[in-house]
Specification:
Layout: H1 12-33, H2 41-44, E1 45-48, E2 56-58, H3 59-75, E3 80-83, E4 87-89, E5 95-102, H4 104-109, E6 115-121, E7 126-133, E8 138-142, E9 147-151, E10 154-157, E11 170-173, H5 181-191, E12 196-199, H6 202-210, E13 216-222, H7 224-227, H8 230-236, E14 240-243, E15 253-258, H9 261-271
Length: 272
């Protein structure tokens, strides 16, 4: 299990190198998933990890994580690795955090709101993060200071919106079935204060916050690999991301991202 520890210093040149590596590896892993996308889910699904309910693992999940792990071990053999499918391999204090397909249920359903997530964790925060959606060929990336989107040959900087009034905001969450009654009540308090609410989205909903399309994105019961890659993207685009009680979201839990600090304060007021 991933835990907080003293942050390992990462200089600007190292950060740029790690981000370039993460972008290249996420694309390679994403391309490995495409032969399985929109094929028969009966063939694709290998295992149900949930003793109750349905938490699928597909061939694409395992192949994509294997691709990423192999590249990390070749390039940074002293770094740690923590992935959804194959767990934790401790290292020097810097740890690559992998979700080979965030949104596996969407992937199996032929829907588009899934992606490959890869981050580098310094012990306190992820210092770089990428989300790659290979079917649309969209690569979102960030280092906490800047964020961008590559699509095809075009690369551009992305920013959250300046809208800071909750009553005019759009919120989005993957779903609320993972929440207890108390948390569902908090969610409804937020949703009822907003102008528009959408459900479904997985990792992609957070990318849309960074892109300025959604104003508040939230999810619950997340693992570190579900959220770490998205944190530097949100922050780099000018947004704010914390747990529902305002804490560090790097280890997951209930997480909310907002377009700006003023809107985030209003969201937290409804969620606390």
């Amino acid at each position: 299990m991933l835990e907080f520890s003293r942050a390992v210093p990462v200089g600007d040149d190292e950060r740029a190198e790690y981000l370039a590596f993460a972008k290249a590896v996420a694309v390679q892993a994403g391309l490995a998933t495409l032969p399985y996308f929109r094929t028969s889910s009966d063939v694709m699904c290998l295992e149900n990890k949930a003793p109750e309910g349905f938490d699928p693992v597909t061939r694409a999940d395992r192949e994509a994580e294997s691709v990423i792990r192999e590249r990390i071990k070749q390039t940074y053999p002293n770094h740690g690795i923590y992935g959804e499918e194959y767990g934790l391999e401790p290292g020097c204090g810097l740890t690559w955090v992998i979700d080979p397909i965030d949104g596996t249920r969407a992937f199996m359903s032929g829907m588009l709101h899934w992606g490959v997530l890869l981050a580098l964790f310094d012990g306190e925060n992820p210092v770089v993060g990428v989300l790659y959606q290979p079917y649309t060929d969209e690569l979102f990336f960030g280092d906490g200071t800047h964020a961008g989107l590559v699509r095809g040959q075009e690369e551009r900087r992305i920013n959250t919106t300046s809208l800071d009034v909750l009553s005019r905001a759009t919120t989005c969450t993957t779903g609320i079935e993972w929440l207890g009654q108390a948390e569902q009540a908090k969610y409804h308090q937020l949703a009822e204060s907003a102008q528009l609410n959408r459900t479904g989205g997985d990792c992609y909903l957070f990318a849309l916050v960074a892109l300025g399309q959604i104003h508040i994105g939230l999810d619950g019961s997340l693992n570190p690999y579900d959220i770490q890659a998205l944190i530097p993207i949100i922050r780099g685009a000018g947004g704010v991301i914390t747990t529902w009680d305002g804490g560090n979201p790097s280890l997951g839990g209930h997480v909310v991202a907002s377009a700006n600090q003023a809107l985030h304060a209003q969201a937290l007021d409804k969620l606390r």
